[in-house]
Amino acid sequence: MGVRLMVVDDHRLLAEALASALKLRGHRVLAAAAPASGAADLVISRAPEVCLLGTAAPAEAGAFDPVVKIKRERPQVAVVVLGPVPSPRGIAAAFAAGASGYVRHDERIEGVERAIMKARAGEAAVAPQLLQGAFGELLNPAAQPDDEGARLLRMLTPREVEVLVRVADGEDTRLIAAGMGIAPSTARTHVQRVLMKLGVGSRLEAAALAARTGLLDRAGPVGGGS
After folding, report:
1. How does DSSP assign 58-117, residue by residue?
2. Which of 171, 165, 144 is nearest to 223 (CA)?
3. Long-range contacts of range 27-30, CB-CB < 8 Å, 24 or more positions apart?
4. Model confidence over 59-111: pLDDT tens digits?
5. How many Å from the N-terminal Cα to the C-terminal Cα in the chain?
6. Which helix (H) or strand (E) holds 53?
7. pTM of the full structure
């Protein structure tokens, strides 16, 4: 018995081609395309057994908001996300939103149909190779670029960043104070706070750390003081 379903994707050609292929296999396709912004409302109004919901960016925030809305208004509708190869985070986000499955845009029609049938039966529908890839990435994560500079930069106030840049430029306390229009004692206090926050014991170490982590490049030019 065919499934009463919808194919909803903002790429009309993809949606219509998939809908046509599913019709030929005996399924009742209610709609073939809709912009992402109106996908949830369309599905809610038609209430199919299964919805194939396309997404172009599963890693983006809010990508699965339509799934949440559909499941809140029509919990009986099984939603299978149709998208690019996802990260483990993307698969997890889809299921956390209430999806019953995830299939790739380039999946063969037989694989799409299997996902539809599993979703209608209340089973999780994810191709084994997708799960294998996700688990592989979780077990062997790709090395992330060193972003220590950004982390250190967030620890410092704008005034302390300016002090650090001046320290790295070789300015002593007197020059820092003059350049920033503050008292030497205040400049000295700022320097000590910078050293403490960076976890170093000298101005030379602070300058070296800032250069090594790219913090100076992120900081930009110093201001004229206030």
Report:
1. TTSTTTTHHHHHHHHH-TTSEEEEEESPPPHHHHHHHHHHT-SEEEETT--HHHHHHHHH
2. 165
3. 27/2, 27/3, 27/113, 27/116, 28/2, 28/3, 28/4, 29/5, 30/4, 30/5, 30/6
4. 777 888 999 999 999 999 999 998 887 677 778 788 889 999 999 888 889 99
5. 76
6. strand 50-54
7. 0.58
Amino acid identity at 192 = Q
Query: How far is residue 168 from each of residues 10, 44, 210, measured CA to CA in Å?
Result: 52, 60, 8
Strands 50-54, 28-29: pairing is unpaired
With a cut of 50, which residues of the chain have pLDDT below it? 143, 145, 224-226
Buried b or exposed e, range 150-188, using 16+ CB within 10 angstroms? eebbeebeebbbbbbbbbbeebebeebbebbebeeebbb
> Which amino acid, residue 200?
V
Residue with tokens 């694989």: 111
Q: Roughly what angle, to the nearest 10 degrees, separates helices 158-168 and 173-180?
A: 130
Task: Report the distance separating Cα 137 and Cα 215, nearest Å.
Answer: 30
Query: Nearest 5°: phi and psi at 104?
Result: -75, 150
5 pairs with which residues across the strands?
Answer: 29, 50
